[in-house]
Amino acid sequence: MLSTLRRLANLTLVERALLLQLTALSLGLRVALTTITLPRLTSLLSHIAVSPLLSQVPIFHTRCTVDRLFTLIDLATAVSHRNGRCLPRSLLLFWLFRARHEPVELCLGVIKNRTTLEGHAWVERDGIVLGDTVSFTSRYALFLRLSS
Fold this sequence. Notes:
- Helix content is about 50%, strand content about 20%.
- By secondary structure, the protein is an alpha+beta fold.
- It has a 4-stranded antiparallel beta sheet.
- The protein is globular.
């Protein structure tokens, strides 16, 4: 918790504005995930991201480096999704990379741990994992890849 507070304190004014927007969008994704299928949602996000008017949403996202976006998205989803935040985080990454006109894919994988089945979501660009580690994502068997 203390490290999160330090990270928040070190944000610029633009980054704070972007974080607020990303948190709101993350909460919106939480609602959308209960009403829209994932393939339909990724298609919708992809179309919104490349539309001339909506490609600037969230405002200021083009002013941040990719590394800062990863940090801000992590903070936003930590606030809005306590558990199981990999899917909203990956959907936000998917959206923002599409807004930057970069082809990305949303990947979903599963792993069986003794008696439970666990899932994970991540984003790839040209086969390279973004905002996650290959050592972690490689543990999961890929079962769905959604393109932009």
